[in-house]
Amino acid sequence: MVCESWKAKLDTYLDGEVPEEAMRTFDTHVRGCPSCSADALARVQMKRAIHVVGKRYTPSAEFRKRMQQKIAAKPRRSFGLGWAFAAAAAAIVVVGTLTSVYLGTRSGKDQVFSEIADLHVATLAGSSPVDVISTDRHTVKPWFQGKIPFAFNLPELQNSDFSLLGGRMTYLEQTPGAHLIYDVRKHHISVFVFQERSLPAKLGENPLSPKQLLFNMETWSQGGLRYFVISDAGTADVDNLAKLFKAAL
User: The pTM is what?
Assistant: First the structure.
């Protein structure tokens, strides 16, 4: 079938391993092909489900102690053999420490940005990207009252290139938030809003590079809320919509 060659590369595409020059072409195809779009959505949802399940169990200190006792080195037979085991153990400790530091960083700030990108892709690939459909900010904003534990303002879009499509509830690390979707020159832009204190990491103002995320993104904190603006639109469009939100606050 025509799409078989595309589907064979979907995992590579979703992992951000497609060459940069081919990324735009692949993105255009996925957006225009219902079959590949549905397949991409299913894979993103499975990826997120595995990620959530992987966090449900954290080994206790007692469990760790038992495991260490079971794998403890046996009595040494010779000085040379004992030295070799000690060197190997030291290497394992060093590598483990470095890996823990790296994964700890990756599972914090960078992981949040990666999950925002997943939410953006999964929502736009779905058949119903918004729960409240309206171009009127005075209709969309009240819809969130009682559904999320905070309030926020939406910008006035007159004399701008942006149009509001609507919004939906979303979750990041089990934290409820708002997801707004805007259009600009046939591109969709997602705006996510969460309570800053509820997020699992200190994010700062600089996300991963566009090449790493496959999207342009801007994020900032204001009034106790954390905002993310993400899209495959140009950096100028992402920056301009972010400025409108900042002005609305």
Answer: 0.59
